[in-house]
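Second attempt. The first submission of Pentacotripeptide-repeat region of PRORP domain-containing protein had a stray character pasted in from the spreadsheet, which I only caught after the job came back as garbage. Lesson logged: always re-copy from the clean sequence file. Corrected sequence (395 aa) follows.
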Amino acid sequence: MPVSVRRILTAALRSPKFPSPPLLSLSSPQTKLNTIFPFPQPLNSRPCSSSPPPPEPDPPIPIRTRTRTPIEKQFETWVQTLKPGFSPAQVRDALEVQSDPDLALDIFRWTAQQRGYKHTHDTYLTMIKILIDGRRYRHTETLVEEVIAGACEMSVPLYNSVIRFCCGRKLLFNRAFDVYKKMLKSPDCKPNLETYTLLFNSLLKRFNKLNVCYVYLRAVRSLTKQMKASGVIPDTFVLNMIIKAYAKCREVDEAVRVFREMGLCGCEPNAYSYGYVAKGMCEKGRVGPGFGLYKEMRGKGLVPSGSTFMILICSLALERRFDDGVEVLRDMLDCKMSPDLLTYKTLLEGLCRDGKGDEALRLLEEFRGRDGLMGGKTYRILLNELHFISREEDE
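This time the job returned cleanly.
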């Protein structure tokens, strides 16, 4: 554009006929264009006096914080109490005072993750006892596997605690003997009397059927030899379990041998010792020696169990030793024990078949008066059986 034309336009704009344009906002180029050259707005963008005002914005939603549970608060309290550099003894004390096993386990796991700290056999033993008392058996199995895998140094109490837990769980029965074998190989943690007590007791619980007894009797024999080789002196309880195992399997001679050797271990036979041997002899058909053990036991003032009384009475009746059977039954009633229906029938029906029906009826009335637990139904059954047998004998 020539210079002269530019000057003319400048002068015209500065004249009163052409007012200066208003100051524009520099927010957007479209705003400048609309201000200088106004264009008609579309109908939908023109403000309408009848349109409702824009809605007010919703108030901000407050952020809700989750309320901590009492266990979380207690956990944070104990975490703050256990200052850095805590010892296993402090962790054990913190675990022992916890009433909630889950909180104790959280503390146990948290301390294990701290730098420079490692659990010992004391902390593992304490935690295992807490979980067992709280019936947290799955968590206990996890800790047991950690211990067996070598998570800490072992001790005899920890070994026994693991064996006790495994013996109490049906599916971990074999695992208990795996731990025992590991204990035998340990240079510092050899099995003691508690270890063998737990294992013998676990084996005897499976002596419920005769064919199963022979399977576990081998384990009893092996365990007995290992106990002697280790120099562990058994007590009366362990020897009674060994006697019971032999008697259950009809190995009466072995049972008598252990019974006679109890004195060498400094143990005195008790009522269970006599009872196991006497029952084993009667079941084997050696009623005479069994009755002799009974009299020896009663001479020492020992009282047999109810099962020992009843087995002895039935065995004597089957051997036609009715006088001795009546003597034992009267002794049983004197000890405030009641025979069952089978014991009464074996003795009284044996008397009837032996031609002593009147004596059997007289004894029935005597036993009814002395046995407070004999009900009317038992009495009627016995009375009818005796009358029936007596009629058969008369015919």
